[in-house]
Predict the structure.
Amino acid sequence: MAQPGRLVVIADGCDTEAASICDMIPPVGPIKPLPPTLESLMHPWLATRTTEFDSSGIRKVFDLASQMKDPINLSIGQPDFPVPDAVKQAAIRAIQADKNGYSVTQGITELQQRLQADIDQSLGHSDRRVVVTSGTSGALVLAMLALIDPGDEVICFDPFFVMYPTLSAMVGGKAVFVDTHPSFRIDPEKVAKAITPRTKLILLNSPCNPTGVVADASEIQALAELAVKHNIALLSDEIYRNFCYDGQLPSPTKWNDQTIVMDGFSKTYGVTGWRLGFIHGPTPIIDKITMMQQYTFVCAPHPFQWAALAALDTDMSSHIRQYHARRDRMVAGLNDAGYQVVHPDGAFYVFPQVPPEYESGTEFVTQAIAKGLLVIPGKIFSQRDSHFRISYAASNDTIERGIEVLKALRGAKT
């Protein structure tokens, strides 16, 4: 089990070298043998799987931003508001009370019981347990390790969160992409056609990173029922659950009580560096995920688990309203400039189509960076290179500056 723990570090690693946009695109797909010329360049101790991916293109933009003077940074999906004082003080009290050693693997009793009570009240499932994890990404790693055997197929919706196909390959699986362009809606018929005897898992992310689209109840119900029909695991990534601006988030747990759900504290409370998540689902699955955590991450950061208890009693509605307003301003600015945008209902992302005067998202983003605007090329999240991602988790001033550059880029090339 030591090797998966090491792989987690590689997946989250940041390349400190400022890379070109072309270098930002991570390869996806099944692991293939290296050509002899590349094999000879590898350190002899490295496993072949390490050649299947590079540092996340998002992280490379993050590194690039650190080297630029006053960039207009609309690239990183990280809340810009400060952590609420009550949450910070709870973390400080825990540290000062010497709650700095290991916790039990499944999470401190107080937090686990509170999460379990909230989940039971919300869903009412008779056989559903929860484990506190080292971030939502940690929950995803553990779920993939627990569920996917070599050769298993994992259905991902394109556009996808960047980790999905890479982690599928890392555990020996194969990502199978179901295209959702141009509307970014889930077509159950396309999903049904993608299912084979090797299909093991469907990955759902709603609200979606990178599009901001929230799947509606009819899409979710059809997907949930399809998973039941074919006895396929359904993993619902709900880290942006609280960032739904135009209605409540429909969860597949309503129609499929075997759904596995990932959630966490990072986005809602602005604690992305604390690495606090949780995952809940059928008891046999969660028991094995807990065991996987024991031999990899060991536990979530102990003092911050106590802060998470305070977070659950902290009202974040004013921050959500601010992001709602930022969403509206960003979308209005893009529409005024003539960009084609699918309306984002949640998260804090917009995924506009590249204007027709540009050949690709890569070319467009290259021009944007030349003007000091950091956005992410869509090819990082897709098999297409036709869009780019904006994060409006930024100040109003940064958003306004970004809109001005986007307007200039719209007419800069003829």
Observations:
- DSSP finds 15 helices and twelve strands in the chain.
- The domain at 14-82+317-410 is CATH 3.90.1150.10 (Aspartate Aminotransferase, domain 1).
